[in-house]
Amino acid sequence: MNMQLTDKVILVTGANRGIGRALVEEALKRGAKKIYAGTRTSLTHPDPRVVPLMLDVTDAAQVEKAVGAVGHLDILINNAGIALYDDLGDREMIERHLAVNFFGPYSLIKAFLPSLTESRGAIVNVLSVTALASLPLIASYSISKAAAFSLTQAFRAYLAGRGVNVHAVLTGPTDTDMTKGFEIPKSSPQLVAGGIFDGVERGEEDIFPDPMSASMAESWRSGAVKAMERQNAAFVA
Ligand SMILES: NC(=O)c1ccc[n+]([C@@H]2O[C@H](COP(=O)([O-])OP(=O)(O)OC[C@H]3O[C@@H](n4cnc5c(N)ncnc54)[C@H](OP(=O)(O)O)[C@@H]3O)[C@@H](O)[C@H]2O)c1
After folding, report:
1. Residue 17 CA: which ligand 1 atom is closest?
2. Which of 64, 102, 119, 120 has a 20 to 30 Å separation from 91 between CA atoms?
3. Do 163 and 118 form a contact (C-beta atoms < 8 A)?
């Protein structure tokens, strides 16, 4: 299902910098009615359509409070994330990544599901190409994104009958604090934010928002794994 951003109410987590901040600006340009900017520190924005929201995605009390503050919601964007170098030597590193990158989106989806069902809205999970192929330099991060991709596919199947679109964003390297010091070609966060909303507006299940990730889009969409996702989803249709 296609969805235009005009007049929509959107919540972006991790909205103070990087891709999250670019998503807020892009949503404003596309005519969103209100954008809740979830952050862990206080935020001000010159546009009155941007409403700051204190939201650490690992804090259950803050998530609950956010649900009360937001009310009506059309699009939930799970963007907040962490990426730390590791080599799987420390179990705690895996748990830290899962807490933010997997259980964060899980908690927010559960919490906002009544609003999103009511609005027949959309969930956008900002994942990574490392969900498809591990980058062993950031192995725990890759694990958390692969798990969040599986979560996305399962919610997509469960919610299809309730009119809620569930998008996976398979982002390639982007020039933010997260990739500082990693000398590889990167896309700008502005380009990625535009690619994400283009995908949402076109109703794409899996969004490849930048040139690097887009090079995989066609083979992914016509491939055996995507076909199996559809077959598996039919069991809960
Ligand atoms: N950059 C890339 O190359 C790339 C590639 C693929 C996917 N992604 C994904 O894109 C998303 C955004 O990444 P980015 O590149 O913009 O990273 P970034 O510049 O490091 O920003 C990360 C954002 O997440 C927030 N955050 C971290 N932990 C949080 C928590 N517990 N609760 C709420 N917010 C939290 C940060 O808030 P604070 O400022 O408070 O720390 C910050 O706003 C992430 O999910 C990332 O995995 C990025």
Report:
1. 43
2. 64
3. no
| 85 included as an active-site residue | no
The CATH number given to whatever domain includes residue 181 is 3.40.50.720
Does residue 78 sit in helix, strand or coil? Answer: strand
In a domain, 2, yes or no: no
Domain assignment present for residue 166? The answer is yes
Nearest 5°: phi and psi at 152?
A: -60, -45
Q: Contact 73/8 with Cβ under 8 angstroms?
A: no
Mean pLDDT, 10 residues at a time, the chain of 237 residues:
92 98 98 98 97 98 98 98 96 98 98 98 98 97 98 97 97 98 96 98 98 98 98 93
